[in-house]
Amino acid sequence: MWRTAHYRRRVREQNTLLDFVFGELHDPRMKFILTTHNVTLTKAIEDHILARIDKLEHYDRWAIDARVTLEHDHTKAPERAFKCSFRLGVRGPDLYAEDWDRDLYAAIDKASKKIEQQIRKRHNKSKSRKHTDAARSKRSRQESNL
Fold first, then answer.
1. Residue 58 belongs to a domain with what CATH number?
2. Average pLDDT for residues 64-80, to the nearest whole number?
């Protein structure tokens, strides 16, 4: 928000009036909701999740919110004791991934990796739709070389 205040100050100094202000169209901070069930939330776990969310935000800067759920189920097999699920709110359908592991950090890493793959797939699909002619010519060149 410092950019907005700085920009407004500069506009006032120039005595010009604009109907819009840069920086208010997209808030760079996404909403983050963390829910736990039978898991004691520590600062280390929270920092690990926030690092993963920052990495996801790097892949898709238009993400609206991120919901992370951590669960520990005592009744399941030990190799599936911890569950982590991510729901990333983006334009269009939300992205969702969940994974289980015997270690909470490993479950977080696996689930975030699945979300990263979904973001990449979504990005590649949109790029390929925009560049269908180039993709067709590239495909024909590759087939002719084989």
1. 3.30.160.100
2. 90
